[in-house]
Amino acid sequence: RDGMNILAIFDGISVGRVALERASIKVDNYYRAEIDKHANIVASSHYPDDINFGDVIKWREWDLDWASIDLLIGGSPCQSFSIAAAITGNRNGLDGKSGLFYIYLDILNHIKSLNPNIRFMLENVKMKNESKKQLDEYLGVKGKYFNSELVSFQKRPRYYWTNWDWDLPVDKKISFQDYKQDGDLSKYKVKETPSRIKMWSNGKGRKNGFGACANVTYSDKIYCLTTKQDRCPNSGLIEYDGFCRYLTQNELEIAQTLPTGYTSCVSYNQAQKVLGNGWTADAIAHIFRGIECG
User: Fold this and answer.
1) What is the mean pLDDT of the chain?
2) Closest CA to 200 of 237, 247, 251
3) What are the protein's UniProt keywords (predicted)?
4) Does 87 have pLDDT greater than 50?
């Protein structure tokens, strides 16, 4: 074979496929597993020929030549590891929704039994040291911390576990100010309801206490993309027309270093979710470039 066979579980909008292209890695087959309806609409609009097996829990039923898989990638659900979970009191690690990590591990071990040379990458959020050590032990490698702010204008702290070596990239010093949209953005203006007035907090930002969102109007970096911009915390709000606005759909796409219009086949609310659950393409591409020399 000229290229690699990829299995991407919890694939989302196929950012892994975008990253492989940017890393100049030839792909023979890209098999994916994703159940989110709108994520699948986006992924299929760009890669209609990729095979989606759907529910990862049913992986033992898949008609797949497991020994042929060269690279397993995925980002298992992070809700019970995340900072947001800590705020709500639900930060219970592998005992919560993030326990789907064990599905990733089962699949990895199954492929290893057939192909000991399998490469793998797992992505997850910055988490408690105890949870991080658990994942290190299960995977047999230490997760490396990589904040997407090095390759984008988004602060997105993540851990990546791979069985090849790679170094952090040089900071590209990318500023949101160079990509911030202007003009008529009235469709993104925040409605002045009591809860949203509290979110904006007269533009004072997070320093004004719990319930206030960051003011990123003049910032170089926005905060981590979330699945709902109309919640606190979110990626930040921008001064607009006497009040504030949300990040536009294109700004959200660029924050994940995706082409503008990548999610144009879904609504703004749907795009928020799939982009918030997605990867930063240039971060993943950087990691993939280490495969040949790792």
Assistant:
1) 92
2) 237
3) Methyltransferase, S-adenosyl-L-methionine, Transferase
4) no
**SS3 state of residue 194:** helix
Same domain, 76 and 100: yes
Query: Which domain, by its residues, includes 228?
Result: 176-274
Report the percentage of the chain scoring pLDDT > 70.
Answer: 90
Within this chain, do residues 168 and 241 fall inside the same structural domain, yes or no? no
Distances in Å between the alpha carbon of 34 and those of 40, 59, 198, 270?
7, 12, 36, 15
Same domain, 44 and 140: yes
Strands 157-162 and 238-240, by their bridges, are unpaired
Q: What is the CATH number of the domain that holds 212?
A: 3.90.120
In this structure, are 180 and 168 located in the same domain? Answer: no
Give the CA radius of gyration of the chain: 19
pLDDT for 99 = 73
Residue 219 predicted with pLDDT over 70:
yes
Q: The pTM is what?
A: 0.92
Residues listed for the chain: 294
Reported as a pLDDT band with limits 50, 70 and 90, residue 82 is very low
Six-digit token string for 92: 């219970």
C-beta of residue 73 within 8 angstroms of C-beta of residue 113 = no
166 with 35, same domain: the answer is: yes
State CA 116 to chain mean position distance.
Answer: 28
